[in-house]
Amino acid sequence: MFSRFPIEDAPSAIRSSSAKRTKLLVHISAWATRILALLSIIFAVVSFTMLHDVWFGAVMCVTAAFSILSPLNFNACCYSDCSGNTTFVKRCGLVSVFVWMFLTDMAYMLVFATSWGIWLVSYDVKDLLNTVFAFALIINIVLTFFNLYSICLVYKYGCCFMDGVDRECRQQSVDVMDENNSQLSTKGEGVPVVPE
């Protein structure tokens, strides 16, 4: 019998490394969203001071705010233990996180479109504005990808996805130990030997 997810049919050692990679990617993504928020704030300051463009600075501040509000950065929602919650509460949390991420994704697209419009209208400080615009484009696209990655995590593990990833890592390490110990047998006085 095959499951919906092919990784579940794989040997437990492969699943264990997959869960560990997922955990590492979540931590990297969370730190990347924080760094991108800091870069957005820096570009907002550059826009306010050197470009004297209030609108583009405001757009970069909005990008920083939505980056900080990423689900990857919230302990209360995505890193807590939801096992004690009822099914209704879990479903409400799942729907609210999906709506939250959809709205932030739409905000990233609006911010990108607004910054594109500001770039097309501004003609005076083109070189520095081109550089800041290129970085704004990269920041918004990367944040959109991280948001889509979060949506995939929420779909697979639920709204408390880090607890699900941790639980899967613990379960898979137990499975690996069981699989390794099942290859051992006892001979004579109970001394374990590997079957040949």
Would you kindly provide a written description of the structure presented here, covering whatever features stand out?
- The protein has 196 residues and is mainly α.
- The chain has one domain (11-76, 84-173).
- 76% of the residues lie in helices and 3% in strands.
- It contains 6 helices and 2 strands, in the order H-H-H-H-H-H-E-E.
- It has helices at 12-51, 54-68, 75-78, 87-121, 126-157, 161-182, and strands spanning 185-187, 191-193.
- The protein has a two-stranded antiparallel ribbon.
- A hairpin with a 3-residue loop joins strand 1 and strand 2 (191-193).
- Helix 1 runs antiparallel to helix 6 (161-182).
- The longest helix has 40 residues, at 12-51.
- It is elongated.
- The model has no long low-confidence stretch (mean pLDDT 75).
Which range best describes the helical content: under 10%, 10-25%, 25-40%, 40-55%, 55-70% or over 70%? over 70%
Which class do the helix and strand fractions yield? Answer: mainly alpha
Largest β-sheet summary: 2 strands, antiparallel
Q: Which oligomeric form is depicted?
A: single chain
Would you list the SSEs in sequence order as H and E? HHHHHHEE
Instruction: State the low-pLDDT regions, or none.
Output: none
Average pLDDT metric: 75
